[in-house]
Each structure stands twice: as C-alpha cells, then as structure tokens.
Write a structure and sequence with these properties.
The protein has two domains: 156 residues, 3-Layer(aba) Sandwich (Aminopeptidase), CATH 3.40.630.30; 200 residues, 3-Layer(aba) Sandwich (Rossmann fold). The protein is built from 14 helices and twelve strands. A hairpin with a 5-residue loop joins strand 5 and strand 6. Helix 7 packs across helix 8 and helix 9 packs parallel to helix 14.
C-alpha cells in the first residue's frame, strides 16, 4: 500500500499532502481483515494489488475513529463500501484493480447489497469511473494531522450477481497512428519527413529480429539504421493526439464500451500517451511486457487471458500490424485509414478517421 501510495499520490497532490496520505490513508482497516472482506493479488511472492469492501458504516481509512464505524449496514437501503484499493505503480493498467472490484461487487451482491459507494482519492477516480462509478460529491477530506485532500464520493448500482455478469462490450485499439499522430511525431524526432517511408520498412524488421527489445530500443535502433543519431522515445510523450479521438472515445464510453489499448510500446510511453488522450482506458497491453510485437497474435492472447475472451471489435490504422492479425483471429475490425491506403484483406468497416466510430461500434456489436 505505502509503496503504491508513495508513487501515485505524488502525481496528484503536493509533497505534504502525499506524505500525509501515505501515512493515514495507505493502511488496511483491521475491520476488513476481521470480516474477511479484503483481497490481494500476488505475482510470485510479491503483493502487487489489494482492495476490499465492507458491510460496515466506515467509508474510508484515515477518517479517524467514530462511534458508528462498526455498525452493520442494511443491504436493502444502504450501499456497501469499497475500501482501501491500491495497485503498485509498476502494475497499473493490467486489469488488477478491476479484478478486485469485481470480487468486491460479487461478494456484496451475495449479501443482498444493491449499491456500492466509496470515497476516492484523485489517483483512483479514473479506475472507478471506468468501472461504472458515478461522482456524487467533490469533498475535502481532513486527515488527522489537519492536511486536506481533494477527494470524491462515488456510487454505482450492483450489476454483477455472483458469477453472472452483465455482458460487457470491449473495443481494443492500436495507439500510434490511430489515436496519436505517429507520423508527425516521428518525422519531427528524425528531423526529416522523407525518412518516414523507409522507417516504416525498418521498424518491423527490427521488431521481428529482436522481439525482446523494449520499444524505446526499437525506436533508437531503427533510427540508427537510417543513419540518424536520435532517441525518438524522448519526444514521444509529446506527440500530438488527433482531434477526432477524444469526442469519439467519450461517446463510446458513455454507451457502455470498455476500451483497451494493444500497443507495440513500453509501459511508460503508453501511460504518457493515455494521459495526453484524456480518456480513461480499462486496460493497456504493451509489447515490452509480453515479449512480442504485432502483427504476432500475442497481444490478443494476453488480452483474452486477462478479460476471459477476445474483444468484440479491434480498431487500428495499421493494416499490416493490426487489421491482418485481427482478421486472422476472426475479429470484427475497423480500419482507421487516415492515409488512404489500399490493402487486403478488407476490414469489416473502414473509416478515414475516428469520426463516426462510436456509431460503427454499435453496428458491429449492438
């Protein structure tokens, strides 16, 4: 908890607030352990995520002691509490938080609760929104030492009942070229737009030869083979997002779509790009963590391992890296053909940009 909090709180709060949050918020409430309502996820012998729920009145750790904290809630009229959710910073966006939330919701549903509530610190808000929690009120939480934290109360109805879940619709995306203007960013990094065509040939060869390389290393080696002494990854976090991206993704989310990125990239690079996009993604699978680059199928297999099945639709600009392998897996595809190319096999749908994507997703998976 404290390892996670020490990194994540500093991204949203000042130093004094972050230190206080680690001290007072990054703790397990003993009531959760005594009630058997706290969950952990381990990788080998390391604890990488944790969180739980409560049938008792206390809403969050760090609120101080109150006489009514241990009062049992009435499932018919009161929401169960979601409590003390933490994912280690180097394990975020792998679906771990969602797994714990699903376990909490299943357990609360089994005891008759129909709603969930929580007090979210700012680092957790994107995860909770993505899971279906809606904001109730923005509040200033006062910690025992008097420091205040901007926080938010959130609620959602229970939509899972035991192992029977509402069918979720998943759309997976490539990022660079589809959501982020890869050509513009790369041309600037290389210092010569005329090198792009050759780069498009070199990079897949580097990836195929050395699938274990990080994407940062792939970018550097590809530039070297073009005779350019540059590290394109250094500028990648600032590469521009296409103007049509955010409104369409927000519309898709508002219609209940779950969004995931399958990227030939590294974790730190994709996190920077997601922040620039400004729309929450439920999952991001990157090449450097699975030891494979598209067009190999490992990204989709890794997605299925985490979600339990393949996505409903795959959306991408690259025909070679994405449309061809997704079609081989018999997935509906949307080719974001920003460059006006022609290639076979044909995608299920073809758009010149993301405009109209939300409606297209509805056609493919109503």
């Amino acid at each position: 908890m404290r390892v996670s909090g020490d990194v994540l709180f500093r991204r949203f709060y000042d130093e004094h607030q972050a230190e206080s949050a680690v001290r007072y918020v990054s703790n397990v409430d003993p009531m959760l352990l005594e009630d058997g309502t706290y969950f952990v996820i381990e990788a080998g012998d390391e604890l990488v995520a944790c969180g739980g729920w409560s049938r008792r009145d206390r809403l969050y750790t760090g609120s101080g002691e109150s006489e009514g904290d241990a009062r049992l809630l009435d499932p018919a009229t009161e929401p169960a509490r979601v409590r003390a959710m933490f994912t280690r910073a180097d394990w975020t966006r792998r679906g771990l938080g969602r797994q714990i939330l699903e376990a909490c919701e299943d357990a609360a549903a089994a005891e008759g609760f129909t709603r969930l509530s929580l007090m979210a610190t700012l680092p957790g808000v994107p995860l909770y929104r993505a899971y279906g929690f809606e904001p109730v009120e923005e509040v200033l939480v006062t910690l025992p030492n008097g420091v205040t934290l901007e926080s938010m109360t959130m609620e959602k109805p229970v939509t899972r009942h035991g192992k029977a879940r509402v069918m979720e619709r998943w759309a997976t995306f490539d990022c660079y070229g589809t959501l982020v203007d890869w050509n513009a960013g790369l041309a600037a990094a290389l210092g010569d737009e005329t090198l792009l065509a050759r780069y498009h040939e070199v990079e897949p060869a580097v990836q195929a030869e050395s699938p274990g390389l990080s994407y940062r290393e792939v970018l550097r080696e590809s530039a070297r083979r073009l005779g350019v002494d540059a590290d394109p990854a250094e500028t990648l976090p600032g590469w521009p997002v296409f103007d049509d991206v955010r409104p369409e993704l927000e519309t898709a989310r508002s219609r209940g779509w779950r969004l995931a990125i399958l990227s030939n990239s590294d974790r730190d690079l994709i996190e920077s790009s997601i922040e620039s996009i400004g729309v929450p993604f439920d999952l991001a699978i990157v090449a450097s963590e699975i030891g494979s680059y598209k067009p190999a199928h490992r990204h989709w297999h890794a997605f299925a391992e985490q979600v339990g099945r393949l996505p409903d639709v795959h959306v991408a600009q690259s025909h070679f890296h994405d449309v061809v392998p997704a079609a081989a897996l018999r997935l509906p595809t949307v080719w974001i053909n920003r460059l006006g190319e022609r290639a076979e096999p044909a995608a299920t749908r073809e758009l010149t940009g993301l405009t109209g994507l939300a409606d297209t997703l509805e056609e493919l998976a109503p």
